[in-house]
Automatic annotation (TrEMBL):
Domain of life the protein comes from: Bacteria
Lineage of the organism: Bacteria, Pseudomonadati, Pseudomonadota, Alphaproteobacteria, Rhodobacterales
Keywords: Membrane, Transmembrane, Transmembrane helix
InterPro entries recorded: Class_I_gatase-like
Protein name in the entry: Glutamine amidotransferase domain-containing protein
Transmembrane segments: 12-31, 38-57, 658-676
Length: 681
């Protein structure tokens, strides 16, 4: 229990001051006039003023509160290298035992892991949360067990007590790190793109480590290429992307002897391969109402270079005009179909028929072009069913359907087939079932490939096929243009033809038989697209070589998906049904491993102001002492805690020092004494 004197005035303080001033003036006046009772009158007034001040003796029943010590234990990824986990755990347990032995002291152990995403060690955020939960007046000290690599010092709170750092790691630690300084998100297929790399050595690098290091480079998990690059210098490396879509490039530096960790010796870079310009050759057999459809579609895409070859005057037409006067320049057919045919990504034959303008050797070269990886699309008109059909040329072996010589001239509405509902070219087209009609279809018999759309009485209308390394498509009607004119409400003409052309040019998002993954943080969405009704489980190979079998569920026709959370950062390989894919999880260079050498520099601005200390765990733990607030809180082999001497008041009792009867008795007595003294004169 503790006692104290306090005042609880019965009147406001200003009024009490005024009364005190008037009392003093009255006493001075009495003294000046020579009144002998001035002292008694003054004492009477003083008693009244004291009574108005409300003096009381307060007794508090106090219970002392314990001091609180916060101990932050860094368990982030950078603390898992070498022997730091055991080193930190042992130091934490011993320091906890030392603090818990102290009287009137409580310990709060706070474990700090990695932040969300790639935000690194959030030690200051954890400290701020802990201070919000505890009375700051009871905090006697803060102890952090860490390698000092903190990534949220900008969120450091105002510290109520000294901060001490117990530093993990060893003084002779050294580490080699691979840094990708510059990597574009997109690059043009077939053209080199420049990446900037750097290999850095940090810490106590041994004398035997040379100035050069080996760098291994692999694309999509393939066999690596090796080269030697200098350490400590920026290195520009040209990379050529082999295909469109996502290219996963892995850079790896082999582990050196004595290196702290290999977690920062590799980096994953994912670059989307795009085509610079798509080159298309459009061969129109004769002018017709839909002849402008293909031209408008291809010219509307700024990334397409179009060469349009139109036969305006067939050889059988005799009008007396010399052939050499039919064009301003001679059309370079030999150059296009023999010498530079491989420069084109797609060749379209729109209502073309044999007229002797393109010799058989040219068309035979087109067939070879498809087998070598090219693409041909045939938009068939009535001539496709005649003896002059393009099917009666060297192109026949690569075409997916054979004409029956029948042209059906009647109204029908195109419909998506069962395979078409699963194929990305035709699945999900707007307004399916409500499209406008077409008026002509060429009757064909499919020989290979997949029928995506049907016409009259279920006859094949759109057939797609893969031939060799290339692709072929046959549209058995020349009336797609009716959709563009809004006939009977029209249909998705431009979208269908755009998808068809881009599938022919092997755009990754339109592959009907594909396996890939979409990544968000450490979770991937595995996607398998196929025309088959069922698929097997996807085999996921982790960076450490272990595998998981992940079953897929069909989410829409032809599309199967599953979610998979990767347990670690790195390159994952996926495989199912002969299809493979690679995907990188996590950042190209995890923030936790950008710097792995233990340091006190990051936390120094927080330690120095309150005179905290830094102690290496490998040198032994410091002793714990009490220090007064404002005094140095660390020294050689010791750290200090500041006792707070806080308490909780359980009960309060107040006893008035001037009860009314006493005030009345004293004030009256002094007045009477003064009056009697003055009366004797």
């Amino acid at each position: 229990m503790t006692g104290s004197l306090l005042f609880d005035p019965l009147v406001p303080y200003p009024l009490l001051v005024i009364l005190a001033v008037l009392t003093v003036l009255g006493v001075v006046l009495a003294l000046w006039r020579g009144l002998s009772g001035w002292a008694m009158r003054g004492l009477s007034a003083l008693v009244l003023l004291a009574a108005l001040a409300g003096p009381a003796w307060q007794i508090e029943d106090r219970e002392p509160l314990t001091d609180i010590v916060l101990m932050l234990e860094d368990e982030s990824a950078s603390q898992t290298v070498s022997d730091r986990p055991e080193q930190t755990r042992s130091a934490a347990d011993r320091m906890a035992a030392e603090i818990e032995k102290r009287p009137n002291t409580e310990l709060r152990r706070i474990r700090v892991g990695d932040g969300d995403g790639d935000s690194g060690t959030r030690l200051m955020s954890a400290l701020s949360d802990a201070l919000n939960e505890e009375p700051r007046a009871r905090i006697a000290g803060i102890i952090a067990l860490s390698d000092g690599q903190i990534h949220d010092t900008d969120r450091a709170p105002e510290l109520p007590a000294p901060l001490h750092l117990l530093l993990s790691g060893r003084e002779n630690d050294w580490d080699r790190r691979l840094v990708v300084k510059n990597a574009p998100a997109f690059a043009i297929i077939g053209e080199p793109v420049m990446l900037s790399l750097r290999i850095e050595d940090n810490g106590a690098v041994p004398d035997g480590v040379g100035p050069m290091a080996e760098l291994q480079i692999s694309v999509d998990g393939g066999d690596p290429d090796r080269l030697s690059i200098p350490v400590g210098q920026d290195f520009d490396l040209p990379i050529t992307l082999p295909h469109g879509g996502r290219n996963v490039i892995q850079f790896l530096v082999p582990v050196a002897d004595g290196e702290l960790t290999d977690r920062n010796n590799s980096a994953l870079v994912q670059i989307n391969g795009v085509r610079d310009r798509l080159r298309v050759l459009l061969v129109s057999g004769q002018p017709h109402p839909g002849g402008r459809t293909w031209r408008n579609l291809l010219k509307s895409d700024s990334s397409v270079d179009l060469v349009h070859f139109t036969i305006l005057r067939p050889p059988e037409k005799q009008d007396g005009v010399p052939v050499d006067e039919l064009s301003l320049i001679a059309f370079p057919t030999r150059e296009l179909f023999l010498e530079k045919i491989d420069d084109f990504d797609l060749i379209i034959f729109d209502r073309y028929k044999r007229r002797g303008i393109l010799p058989a050797i040219y068309l035979d070269n087109v067939a070879n072009y498809v087998n070598g990886g090219g693409a041909v699309l045939v938009a068939a008109g009535p001539d496709f069913a005649t003896a002059d059909s393009i099917y009666r040329t060297p192109l026949a072996p690569i075409l997916p359907a054979e004409p029956t010589a029948r042209v059906i001239e009647e109204h029908f509405r195109p419909e998506v087939s069962e395979d078409g509902a699963r194929h990305p070219v035709t699945s999900g087209l707007d307004g399916a079932g409500e499209w406008g009609g077409w008026l002509r279809q060429i009757d064909v018999l499919p020989r290979s490939g997949h029928v995506l759309m049907n016409g009259i009485e279920g006859r094949p209308l759109l057939v797609l096929d893969r031939v060799g390394e290339g692709r072929v498509a046959l549209l058995a009607s020349d009336h797609a243009w009716l959709w563009g004119r809004g006939y009977e409400g029209g249909g998705p003409q431009m979208e269908l033809l755009r998808r068809l052309a881009h599938w022919m040019m092997k755009e990754p998002e339109l592959e009907e038989d594909a396996l890939w993954a979409e990544v968000q943080n450490q979770t991937m969405r595995i996607i398998r697209r196929t025309l088959e009704a069922e698929v097997g489980a996807v085999t996921v190979t982790r960076p450490d070589g272990t595998t998981d079998e992940i079953p897929l569920a069909e989410v829409s026709p032809g599309r199967f998906e599953a979610l998979y959370a990767g347990p670690e950062i790195g390159l994952y390989k996926l495989s199912e049904g002969g299809k493979t894919a690679v995907v990188g999880l996590g950042p190209a260079a995890p923030r936790e491993f950008e710097a792995t050498i233990a340091t006190q520099e990051v936390l120094a601005p927080l330690i120095v102001p309150l005179r905290g200390g830094v102690f290496r765990m490998e040198d032994g733990l410091p002793a714990v002492r009490n220090v007064r607030e404002g005094r140095p809180a660390s020294g050689r082999g010791w750290l200090g805690l500041t006792p707070r001497e806080t308490y909780e008041t359980r009960n309060i009792r107040q006893t008035p020092l001037a009860p009314a009867w006493l005030v009345l008795l004293l004030s009256t007595g002094f007045l009477i004494a003064g009056w009697l003294r003055e009366g004797r004169r």
